[in-house]
């Protein structure tokens, strides 16, 4: 738009020109948000439903995104926590609302497989839900108690090979349990996996020596490592974490070929209009690719890893196959009878 043309030499159509200029001002002021609302979305308050308790990585990332989208769109975006049954309770709640994109499931890997662990599945993840965007990725940090007779994964592998016995490792949640089981299979270490309902309690018990080791989110374990209360064994991902680059991967530390990553992603009910999905994805892309989000992610022990609706559906299907295979191998998903 050439502003100078709206002056003394402009064509003599003052009313139509003024109306056009006034109509353009909101779009210039609101940017991407105005474009989203022009497509009819959002038309009302948006809820990011997190099927886990407050304080989890998914909750923290969702709250950051919600605050920024509220500013971007000029419409309230709020976070609602509805925990229970490893995410099933909150996920079912999303199916009870209209498929218009104003209620978004913001979740992690258990969403893709936890119904396979139930006798009667209340939904089929990638049939009843449409992937919108992956926003961030995270790793588990494995750490040993200061009271344990090993300080590194290689020491643990060698000690277990020479002396036998088992090693108690605390975990919270089915995903951490599955990853610990995968490490057991990869290294041959006889882990006795101890499930906890509270991640913080699992970390506290490892620091106190009630268990030999713990596997939990980086944000929870790293402060204990830095305080000298736990010894880091390694991070679960295929590459080192930007949050703790000084800590090796488990593959580097002795578990050759090992690599598992968690993530936080948005899904909506199937049948949601494509315009709403596109607006949600565009907003989340804008937020998660910002320098402010990168700094926030580092502090939270997660990493930006945006993937939009062009690629995330296929990646989500691949993730579902991978996690389901891992859980079957670990014995958490039983073969269906009949």
UniProtKB/TrEMBL annotation:
This protein's record includes keyword Transmembrane helix: no
Entry keywords, A to Z: Receptor
Gene3D superfamilies the record matches: Bordetella uptake gene, domain 1, Periplasmic binding protein-like II
rRNA processing recorded as keyword: no
Pfam families hit by this protein: TctC
InterPro entries, per the entry: BUG, Bug_dom1
SUPFAM superfamilies: Periplasmic binding protein-like II
Family statement: Belongs to the UPF0065 (bug) family.
Name of the protein this chain belongs to: Extra-cytoplasmic solute receptor family protein 133
Species in which this protein is naturally found: Achromobacter xylosoxidans (strain A8)
């Amino acid at each position: 738009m050439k502003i100078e043309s709206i002056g003394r030499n402009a064509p003599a159509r003052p009313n139509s020109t003024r109306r056009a200029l006034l109509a353009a001002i909101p779009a210039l002021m609101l940017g991407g948000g105005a474009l989203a609302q022009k497509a009819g979305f959002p038309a009302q308050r948006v809820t990011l439903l997190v099927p886990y308790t407050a304080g989890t990585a998914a909750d923290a990332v969702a709250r950051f995104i919600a605050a920024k989208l509220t500013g971007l769109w000029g419409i309230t975006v709020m976070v609602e926590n509805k925990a229970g049954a490893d995410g099933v309770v909150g996920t079912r709640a999303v199916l009870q609302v209209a498929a218009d994109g104003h209620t978004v499931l913001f979740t992690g890997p258990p969403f893709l497989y936890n119904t396979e662990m139930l006798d009667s599945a209340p939904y089929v993840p990638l049939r009843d839900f449409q992937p919108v965007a992956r926003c961030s990725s995270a790793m588990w940090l494995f750490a040993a108690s200061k009271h344990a007779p090993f300080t590194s994964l290689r020491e643990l592998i060698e000690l277990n090979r020479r002396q036998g016995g088992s090693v108690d490792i605390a975990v919270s949640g089915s995903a951490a349990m599955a990853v610990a089981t995968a490490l057991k299979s990869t290294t041959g270490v006889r882990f006795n996996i101890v499930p906890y309902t509270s991640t913080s309690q699992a970390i506290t018990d490892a620091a106190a020596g009630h268990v030999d080791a713990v596997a939990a989110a980086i944000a929870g374990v790293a402060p204990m490592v830095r305080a000298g209360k736990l010894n880091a064994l390694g991070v679960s991902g295929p590459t080192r974490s930007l949050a703790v680059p000084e800590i090796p991967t488990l593959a580097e530390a002795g578990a050759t070929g090992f690599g598992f990553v968690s993530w936080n992603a948005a899904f909506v009910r199937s049948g949601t209009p494509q315009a709403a999905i596109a607006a949600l994805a565009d907003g989340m892309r804008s937020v998660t690719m910002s320098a402010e989000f990168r700094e926030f992610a580092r502090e939270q022990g997660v990493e930006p890893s945006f993937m939009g609706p062009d690629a995330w559906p296929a990646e989500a299907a691949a993730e579902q196959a991978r996690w389901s295979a891992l859980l079957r191998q670990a014995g958490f998903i039983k073969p269906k009878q009949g």
